[in-house]
Amino acid sequence: MFQPKELFIGLRYIRAKRKSHFVSFIAFISIAGVALGVFALIVVLSVMNGFGNELRDRTLSMTSHATISGYDGYVRDWPTVLEKAVENKEVVAAAPYIRKEVMLSNGRRVSGSLIRGIVPEMESKVSLVESKMISGSLMDLKAGEYGIVVGRELANSLGIYEGDRITVITPQASITAVGVMPRLRRFRVVGVFEVGMHQFDSAMAYIHLEDASKLFSYKDKVSGVRLKLTDLFDAPRITREIEKDFGEDYWVKDWSKQHKNFFRALQTEKTVMFIILLMMVSVAALNIVSTLMMTVTDKESDIAILRALGMRPSSIMIIFIIQGAFIGLFGTLIGVGTGVPVALNVFEIVSWLEQLFNTDFLPSDVYYISDIVADVKVSEVITYALSAFSVTILATIYPAWRASRTLPAEALRYE
Questions:
Q1: What is the pTM (predicted TM-score) of this model?
Q2: Is 80 within 8 Å of 133 (Cβ atoms)?
Q3: Whose C-alpha in 82, 186, 195, 409 is 20 to 30 A from the C-alpha of 7?
């Protein structure tokens, strides 16, 4: 569709000195607007990628890639289930667990907690809790010694430290001589962890699997088996294969289903932010419309002469589309050229600004994620650039169409 003469004339109009400096100023503003929009798209959405990755990593440090559970809420003969699960070549490790809601008490301080019975040696292979310990270790949980590891926020709310003793109150009841009493057990705090997410640090606690089995009368059954997979992003496919191996007696659920609403909300937020930032580019595209409309008025006599020489209306349209496309392309390239380096170095830039203004943008005592990190994805950068450029191309259509409708006789009547 592009012929040499349209391209030649379009580029000539771009290089030519304009009689009206105001038109040149509007063209400059258009380029700057497009560049700023693309810059914001890349930086903001890359930071959102980094934020999402950080939340996912912190969440997966406490949860597993996949979980095998029974439809009645229990897994019996769990050693056999565990052995069968690790036979799959895409399962790296497996670990049993017992999960229950309890109350923790220290004197007059009481707090609800989600307690998890684990085998420390196995748990360290399927989760990152051991690497998040700030005091003690998961390995300090010994069967029969009734030790407990709690989150930092939970420890603060109860006023406990490593070595202190707390009471675990279960929802189950025991029949005694004085009547029905809740089942209680004293535990010794052997460790404190901090993941960096309030929902885990303020409510999670770990005890040994055998202690949990005695406390909750589970005997030889557990709540489920946690799995670590070779590729967490391919978890849905792998869990489907594992579920086929176990048949209808067990339910295999991957991490994306366990936290589906949370990650869906993050994706929705990112999509909405993309639309909002793309609207910034659309505002800049309105300046392109103004620039081209003024250029069409300025070049009306030139258009009439070209039409009189036999140039088709479609060729006139292409000439002005080329002008608008150049503004959009130039602005997009500037936006990509500045946005990508800033996104790649956003942590260093934010740290420098914090030192310069002697402030903390994300205080660690307020925000659990206090570092701004970005994840620049090439495919997304290309998508953002193409989206912005497409908007600028659409903005050129109406002015170019108006130029193609110019009548030679009317335009040259007073020349």
A1: 0.69
A2: no
A3: 409
